[in-house]
Design goal:
Elements: E1 2-5, H1 8-21, H2 34-47, E2 52-53, E3 61-63, E4 66-75, E5 84-88, E6 98-105, E7 110-118, H3 119-125, E8 127-129, E9 146-150, H4 160-165
Parallel strand pairs: 4-6
Antiparallel strand pairs: 1-7, 2-3, 3-4, 5-9, 6-7, 8-9
């Protein structure tokens, strides 16, 4: 897990992008998570400076030909390895190659790049959860059908530094 301090500039860009995007169809949080989503992208771009923003339906970020979809949740504390990452059932068909999962504190002061995983591997390993199903003994209920996977099943995001430093032959 990589901890990232969120700057006022990052927050300002995320708020502007969230405003431009508006509420997405099928949004589980009805658009309330858009700022956090863009902050996740900001964290990845800050940490891996050769990654570039793409913002298409299929992917948020690319590195040369590799496409990444960044999925971010808001949180109130440092994420633990047994916490789960989610992909809504309404969009498991995006055409990115990898998911990068992030969390940001609700006060937008700090966030974490939790890890990454290939899209196919995620769907194979994830557990399908139904809307309204309780999540363990917390009393929280899923707001939509989704695929969940514990953070511990993700690849170490520090491995992306190696990808970030790769320079393809451009001859």
């Amino acid at each position: 897990m990589i901890e990232v301090e969120l700057t006022p500039d990052m927050l300002s860009r995320a708020k502007q992008k969230a405003k431009e995007m508006g509420r997405l169809r099928n949004s589980i949080t009805k658009g309330e998570g858009n700022v956090a989503g863009f902050l996740g992208e900001e964290m990845v771009l800050k940490t891996f400076n050769n990654f570039k923003r793409e913002n298409t339906y299929d992917s948020d970020i690319h590195f040369y030909h590799i496409k990444f979809e960044v999925k971010t949740k808001r949180c109130t504390s440092v994420p633990l390895s047994h916490y789960e990452c989610s992909i809504a059932n309404s969009n498991p068909n995006q055409k990115s190659e990898y998911y990068i999962f992030c969390r940001v504190l609700e006060n937008y002061k700090k966030g974490w790049i939790l890890g990454y995983i290939g899209q196919g591997d995620y769907i194979k390993k994830a557990i399908f959860r139904r809307k309204g199903e309780p999540d363990g003994d917390t009393g929280w209920k899923f707001k939509a059908d989704c695929y969940n996977l514990p953070i511990s099943n993700l690849k170490d995001p520090a491995k992306l530094y190696k990808v970030n430093d790769y320079k393809p032959d451009t001859k």
